[in-house]
Amino acid sequence: MSDPSWLDELRRELKRRRLPTGTVERLLEDLSDHILELQEEQMSKDALSSAVISERLGSPRDVAQAADAEHRRRWFCGRHPVVMFVLLPLLAIPLASTGLVAGVIGLHKAAQVSGLSGPWSTDQFPATVAVMGLVCTLIVLLPAALTAAGLTRLAARAGLGRWWPMSACLILGLIAGASRIDLRLSGLSQQSSLTLGLGFGAATALSQVAKVAAPILVGAWILWRKPRRTSIASS
Amino acid sequence: MTDRKTNPAFLNGVPELLILRLLAARAMHGYEIVQTIRARTGARLDFGEGCIYPILHRLEAEGLLKGQRQMVAGRSRVVYRVTADGRRRLVRIVENWRLIAAAIEGCLKGGGDVRPELA
Questions:
Q1: CA of A70 to nearest chain B CA: how many angstroms apart?
Q2: Distance in angstroms (rounded) separating the CA atoms of residues A161 and A228
Q3: Interface TM-score (ipTM) > 0.85
Q4: Contact assignment for A58 to B54 by CB distance below 8 Å
């Protein structure tokens, strides 16, 4: 019979650290076995006290901390940071932006088919040219910012330092800033156009600055807002 | 060790090395691993016994160990054995450890020859 309070406290610590249920249950199962062995070793018929268990196994907080650190070391991004924080950002914006452009075109087509004549048709509603410019900026900026947020959070969760996520944010910013999308949707058949480009021009537009800055600022905000988590891997 | 329950981070890589080394010799369950480490190190590396399981689980997730619940001495226990990948990792870790140990030993032996010439 193992002491329930030590295990209960450990369970609370593990849950507080948001470790997966399977990991928590497996650890508790192994530790219950270990406590039974300790009990046999001490030839005690009574449950061992939490103090005795802590003396041998460590405090629930220490064990939970070790479990958290080891769990983070299992992460793919922890073992393959180049893939996650260099290669993935290179591919993320082209893939996500292509998807969003396809989505906008699909919506436009659907609107045409349903007789709405395309709510974003720049030939019928000249004022929508500016709106479409904003949409084209957001098609690049949003994936860049969201990918930066995701990778930064992932790096923090996996206990990596700031170097990898900030490198990823910088790559995302440069690709986003260099990407140019000009989408003009027409109500007339075969009149819509999509222009894609890559590169920095002599005259840098405000939208380009925003696209470069957004992922970097998002990543920096997430990293510096939260206290860094230490790990065995980074120590 | 002054701190009896040494933080595993302080012993970065050492528990992994010891676990793989012991399991390369024969399969063991968690409690047996802890007791063997304690006996072989003269209880000098007496880290919290509970911290051994997260390491075992991580090594298992990495495919370096394989855990299997089976009856041992009349009780159901999870017995761990090292895999072929685990043996390869062990070889690398041991080589690194010997290099580091030799380097540190060299520094310690040469410590008396250091002269603060620029002082």
A1: 6
A2: 8
A3: no
A4: no
CA A210: distance to chain centroid?
Answer: 21
**Nearest-by-CA chain B residue for A35:** B31
Alpha-carbon gap, residue A123 to A132, rounded angstroms = 12
The pTM of the full predicted model, rounded to 2 decimals, is 0.59
Checking if the pLDDT of A148 tops 90, the result is yes
DSSP for A22-90, written as a single string: HHHHHHHHHHHHHHHHHHHHTT-SSPPPHHHHHHHH--HHHHHHHHHHHHHHTSHHHH-HHIIIIIHHH
pLDDT at residue B21, rounded to an integer? 95
B46 to chain A: which residues are within 8 Å by CB? none
Instruction: Pick B53's closest partner by Cβ from A31, A74, A231.
Output: A31
On the question of pLDDT at A9 being above 80, the answer is yes
CB contact under 8 A, B31 and A37: yes
| A232, pLDDT greater than 50 | no
- Quote the Cα angle for A15-A16-A20, to 5°: 35
Residues 11-40 of A with CB under 8 A from B: 23, 26-27, 29-31, 33-34, 36-38
